Amino acid sequence: MKNQLSDEAVALGEAVDDTLAAAGGVDLTRRAEADPAARAALIGPLLEELGLWEIEPLADQVQLEAAAAACRAAGRHVLAYPIAERFAAPEGSEGLLLVPSTGRRVAPHADLGLSWSAVELTGLQRPVLSTGGSLHTKLGSFAGEVQVGEACGTLERETALLITLQMWWLLGVLERAGADTLTYVKEREQFGRTLAKFQSVQFTLTDLTVAAQSLAELAKYTLWSLAQDDHEPVWLTDALSLRLSGLEAADAVMRRAHQLHGAMGFADETNVSWYSRISQPVRRLPAGLSQTEAAVVESMGTDRFTNLFTPLPSAVRPEGALAH
Amino acid sequence: MLDYAEADEVQVLRHRLRALVEEHIPKSYLGAFTDNPNDLEIAQRFSRILGEQRLFALTWPESFGGGGASSWEQTALREEMWAAHEPRGAQYMGLNWIGPVLMRYGNEDQQQRHLPPIAAGDVLWCQGFSEPEAGSDLPALRTKAVREEGGWRIHGQKVWTSYAEMARWCFLLARTGTPESRKDGITVFLVDMEQAEIEVRPIPSMLGRHHINEVYFTGAWVPDRDVLGGINEGWKIVNDVLAFERIGIARYARCDKLLSWAPRALGEAWADLPQGLHQRWAKALVHSRSVRLLAYKVVAAQDQGLLDPADAAAYRIAVTLLDQEVAEVLMDIVGGWGLGTEDTERIFERAVEDHWRYAQASTVASGTLEMQRLALANRLVGKR
Ligand SMILES: Cc1cc2nc3c(=O)[nH]c(=O)nc-3n(C[C@H](O)[C@H](O)[C@H](O)COP(=O)(O)OP(=O)(O)OC[C@H]3O[C@@H](n4cnc5c(N)ncnc54)[C@H](O)[C@@H]3O)c2cc1C
């Protein structure tokens, strides 16, 4: 059992983190909101220089881990750029959009003019007919409408990859929100002491931390699972399960981060308000909590989830191994 | 004997208010503090219409321009207004607590000057309490009032002041005692906002551009006649204010309205929502009913002069958490529309997005969730 990312992945994550921090960190997203269309030119070259697009996440596990570490680092700056979507691009396109199967068809970053492919949560592929510009709203600056055509096959592994990498990006956001909150309560004083001294504040912090840590461990497991060829039957279930946990963790972390920041957390000058707003598209699209739960139930069936005492799907179970 | 049926006059009032909203408030209205200056106009106009019909200061004595109605009518008014995105704009503050506090602590001159304009719905007030270093710990406030012949000069900074940009008056707390005097050295000043020595700077936030502000006082003048209550006796007044404020906003009413509206707004798509979401929706409706009844408990107690701040705290805890629960359920229901749209025909979806953003602040504004919990817990375990 090894629960550490490869050295290569860790090093790339640090490089992405450093590059983005040097370029302004969350301020990049602040600038991007003023002119969403310009963010491709603002952010794209930074990632290009790091050689991110030479990575083929589905080629081997080292590259997959590197892509995930890059997404997490981007999340730490709530980077408004389709990093997961570009990593998950199938042959012949520049990026993959995850689109809702019902209701309004909008997707994170669809407002950027890449040559897009699209999938639904089930892996069903649809051609992208056209995309619209930024929604220009407080929660949707970095999302756009997508018109898709008739279903044209399935892309299960790419879909699982995209879901997983989006959650790595979200994980980065949540970890950073937790870190900022910790810093804040250690600095902010009320009643003659720092907020961190109040037991209720400590408990709130612990709940936030447990939520983020659980997500981090599940994110690593899911990544590993996705790299195992014989896990093919559970790739999508595992990715959906990660999404479910990601949405729950996001709610648990962001609610508490807001709460501990008091009124300060709503002001644009405070980063936490950006983590909260800018993470909305990924948290709502292509499916919110209940829809994601339903998708997990559907995908899991009765035997597609590998815990200690759940039967393994036959493809995952090695010859002669313990069945129950 | 129990009786939860609404009295006829309350029902009549609801119908009257709904008709007025229907007539005067555009369907796409989402409150007075949007980027569209028209919305503030709409709220000001509507407040005056209510004022003319004596519907504004419904429970105030008639001598102050009120309507002499019961607190249940007042409750219905609060519910109807909040459910309709508060078409009175910021006026509800003057009405809900500034007026009642002036009635209790103001002298005759202050009552004569300030109450009728509030009752008529044509003056906006803001609340200058919080400071950068004094949030939950309000007694730490430092804004200073310095005595001069005939009045006081105010120096200091307030923050998170809602509506300060448009307010004509500020209900201000300032220090008149020693820096260490905490609760014993605070006085209430009624401050005319139209002075060069007051600067208001909007704070851009996820709540929209025109909601919260910083206010800088560089020697603003308050004549003696606008000192409310005694010098250094402000804290008692503050406690009353906070009690009024806590039942002030009928957040549950908007939750109730949006939840009830959801199936109709979605039409055929409603049936396609996952079962888990239908369950959350149903549960949220049940929660809004029980929270409404907690509010009624507070109103009934207040009616009998038995308001216990711990009950108000219990209600506030429940209603602010409800606001956030409902926000999440509604966001799931509208899916991608929750990210917002400029299409003003999407009335329900826009209301949901607006509700979500504002609900994030409901456990912080007017006293945080944790402060309410402390208030209730101290009462339960007998501290203080
Ligand atoms: C939308 C909005 C509108 C507002 N409008 C106004 C207005 O019009 N006028 C005005 O004066 N103010 C206004 N406020 C300010 C509001 O009253 C304060 O935000 C609130 O009192 C909390 O103060 P704070 O933000 O400084 O948070 P802090 O007091 O710094 O609290 C930060 C966190 O620490 C927690 N905490 C603090 N002390 C303790 C403790 N002892 N034990 C446990 N936890 C603790 C808090 O509960 C919170 O979670 C508004 C705020 C908002 C969000």
TrEMBL record, chain A:
InterPro entries to which the protein is assigned, alphabetical: AcylCo_DH-like_C (IPR036250), AcylCo_DH/oxidase_C (IPR009075)
Pfam families assigned to the protein according to its UniProt record, in alphabetical order: Acyl-CoA_dh_1 (PF00441)
Molecular-function annotations in GO: acyl-CoA dehydrogenase activity
Keywords: FAD, Flavoprotein, Oxidoreductase
Acyl-CoA dehydrogenase/oxidase C-terminal domain residues: 170-280
Stated name of the protein: Acyl-CoA dehydrogenase
From TrEMBL, chain B:
Domain of life: Bacteria
InterPro entries (alphabetical): Acyl-CoA_Oxase/DH_mid-dom (IPR006091), Acyl-CoA_Oxase/DH_mid-dom_sf (IPR046373), AcylCo_DH-like_C (IPR036250), AcylCo_DH/oxidase_C (IPR009075), AcylCoA_DH/ox_N (IPR013786), AcylCoA_DH/ox_N_sf (IPR037069), AcylCoA_DH/oxidase_NM_dom_sf (IPR009100), Mycobact_Acyl-CoA_DH (IPR052161)
Keyword field: FAD, Flavoprotein, Oxidoreductase
Entry cofactors: FAD
Domain Acyl-CoA dehydrogenase/oxidase C-terminal: 232-380
Domain Acyl-CoA oxidase/dehydrogenase middle, chain residue ranges per copy: 126-217
Gene Ontology cellular component terms for the protein in this record: plasma membrane
Domain Acyl-CoA dehydrogenase/oxidase N-terminal: 8-122
GO MF term set: flavin adenine dinucleotide binding; oxidoreductase activity, acting on the CH-CH group of donors
Stored PANTHER family: ACYL-COA DEHYDROGENASE, ACYL-COA DEHYDROGENASE FADE34
Similarity comment: family membership: Belongs to the acyl-CoA dehydrogenase family.
Protein name: Acyl-CoA dehydrogenase
Lineage of the organism: Bacteria, Bacillati, Actinomycetota, Actinomycetes, Micrococcales
